[in-house]
Amino acid sequence: MEAIINTLVGYIWSDALVYLALGVGIYFTVLTRGVQFRYFKEMIKLLFDKQTSTQGISSFQAFSMALSGRIGVGNIAGVATAIAAGGPGAVFWMIVMGLLGGASAFVESTLAQVYKHTVDDQYRGGSPFYIERGLKMKPFAILVAVVTCLSYGVLVPGVQANTIADSFNTAFNIPPIMTGVIIVALLAFIIFGGIKRIAGFAGKVVPVMAVGYVLMMIIVLIFNASNLPAMFALIFKSAFGMDAVFGGIVGLAISWGVRRAVFSNVAGAGEATFSSAAAEVSHPAKQGLVQSFSIYIDTVLVCTATALMILSTGMYNVIPAEGLVLVENMPGIEAGTAFTQAAVSTVFSQYGSGFVAIAIFLFAFTCLIAYYYIAETTLVYLDQKLRYPVLKPLLKIVFLAVCLTGSMQSVGVMWALGDIGFGSMCYLNFIAILLLSKTASKVLKDFDEQKKLGLDPVFDPRKVGIENADFWVTYSDKYDQR
Prior knowledge:
Elements: H1 2-12, H2 15-31, H3 35-38, H4 40-47, H5 59-70, H6 77-86, H7 89-114, E1 117-119, E2 122-124, H8 127-135, H9 138-155, H10 157-172, H11 176-191, H12 195-223, H13 228-239, H14 250-265, H15 273-277, H16 284-313, E3 317-318, E4 327-328, H17 337-348, H18 352-382, H19 391-406, H20 411-435, H21 437-452, H22 461-464, H23 470-480
Antiparallel strand pairs: 1-2, 3-4
């Protein structure tokens, strides 16, 4: 069974997906004239917009929810596997993909806002919603909703639960089943509380955990300051095949850098579209900018923090293929959280492993909360008329069961299942946002024009020729009557 799963992963995560992700990022960067760079200051400003309502959440809460989904084990274990398979050069391409992914994140989150609507007195939206309303392709939308619900409800959660259990077993010698029970108990309390409790939790925990992790990186780098010039030179040379040791695996550096960036920040995969649609904003582009900024936090900041700690301390192996060992600084240690734990332990001694285990718990646990919300939103899409009220409780039970069993399964199988889920969604959502690029361009142009006039942009889809954006027609009419 494991061999079949790995074969399927090989097909899904072929070079085709790697170059598609790069191509989409470049295309949207050109189309939007580098929106992720032009509006950098505006992104930070919009983060602190406290506009909210009984139906929607604030931009910051939506940002935190999306970031809780982006920042997970991919930022710690995923970065380590990228280095192990692609060498130090993978870090460079991971950052490049993160920068380009900011444009993809802007487009998909903006589209989610354009086509959102109110279901059961809550804002709901996301990739299936904008595919049905924007492309008018309901069968495609249903396919995306089913794949997304299965991915976030069944395939992907096991990665996060498994990594938490593995790190706690390494650091504190806690049996995986015990960790799994604790995870399930905490998750049940939060996900049975609804969107407000989920958003409130993410808004409080995510900023603290990200800042704490970066501070830990800074301390590790200070203690290894003398290694930094050589480390940065190694990353750059390896990325372009100029290093004597890693020059022959530049293709793997690109492939694994892009692959882990996509797995970590999921820009363009549709993940952040669901929380983006829940935000209360006056113009869709505002939330697009906020979510674009989350890519900087995830990949350029947190993923890079992990990579720099591992490389500056030399706590890594590079084994790109069976029998091909380029670097073996940690004999017998499998790529993953152990690299990061060993790196931090060089400074924090016996406490390093525990620090990383706690960071992994916070990252992965908030990720699980975001995953459940996404799975529930796709379920709402599939059952918009609420004909089957039993589906939501059933999803909660299945999700919790997957987390419990996932904490006790093989690490390799869990990562492979996660890759299948993410890869499948990437293909589908990349196609959708490319087909809707004209709509996203119209929305951005409208935002640009209003900003040039010194206005606080308010969106009216009728003025830019966008159909089926019923929520915004009502919103703009109410705004005009004020």
